[in-house]
Amino acid sequence: MNELAAGRGSRRGTGGDWTDRILILDVGPIAHGGHCVARAHPEGAGESEGGGRVVFVRHALPGERVRAVVSEDAGGSFCRADTIAVVAPAPQRVPAPCSWARAGGCGGCDLQHVDPAAQRELKATVVAEQLRRLAGIERAVLVEQLPGGALGWRHRVRLAVDDQGRAGLRAHRSHDVLPIADCPLTSAGALASVLDRRLDAGEYRDGEIEVTVDAEGVVHVGDGGPIVQRAAGREWLLSPGVFWQVHPALPDILAAVVGEWADAPAGGTAWDLYGGVGLFATVLAGQVGRDGVVTVVESSRRAVSDGRAALADLAQVGWRVGRVEQVLGVDARAAGGPGGGLAGRPDVVVADPPRRGLGRTVVDALCERAPDRVVHVACDPAALARDVALFAARGYRLDGLRAFDAFPMTHHVECVALLTRASGARARK
Q: Which of 36, 183, 367, 379 is catalytic?
């Protein structure tokens, strides 16, 4: 693993700046983030002098030998590289369906070079490794396939717009906009009206434009709406920019799993945190009935407005606009105030936080309320594992875990975890 082309600069202990160097790498295991781990040695160093420098290499597979170019080197113990040639391929390698899935290409897809079944196995490995490393839990993981196949599934995509008004996708770890002709992950023809014309660059000051295909097959570009979406036997009319899952099969599947694991009692109390437009609230409302209470907490006023309209017939559903930390009183306590927030003890909590997860302050606030069950929906396995560890320290055990390949060709995976309060566990003061 010592084939290194001439590099730039000089960094003590790493053999200088490796940016643009060519490495021959024996590829190790998949890691969280869509890359594999390999090791290389500075020029003049033998493998006997240590384990070598870590290289996070994209577009490779465990067990392969590849030629890779270093794309980023900030110094320290690791650098990043991208495969430019495969010396010894793994049996799971397949031709990528998109020409931009390569070194210097699009940052959206990490796994187009992998057979779809093998993609799910790699993602299962990552989820299991994060649980083991961050939560101390040994658990076999199966990543389940969703209907629709590995291509054409993405019904919502955010395109970048450059200063010339050309729309495209950003290069990996870059703000550069690539002039793509289409994206095979999106619905056929959905992007044509945007990619085939020049946009008014001044109209998109944030540099992005969203394209959505709704439940009726209508393509919405930018601020076009309302956007019709259906799941859990209900219809929503969404304002542009309001969150909805990008895979059309995922909302119904998540609603079914959440409903099964929440199992809110009739007349009970349920909290739907980071609740969006109320997808899970409609399921919880059916469980608690008219005598129960479901409280949705969501920071987006537009999402709350759309959710209230869609669930107007469910009197047991109430809405709180604000950040979860604010509504739970976590922010006030952190500032030395009395706290407060949502009153009472919920029977069950459903939480679908952003990628960073719940975090210690929210987990502690929930455990003080001692719900019987917490159903945690997560799009990042590392954040989920950290949250599971925090709940475990407060007397909750991981009683269920399902993972779904809701983002084929990428490293992303959607998980749902059931956390159950152990018998005799008490809220800690």
A: 379
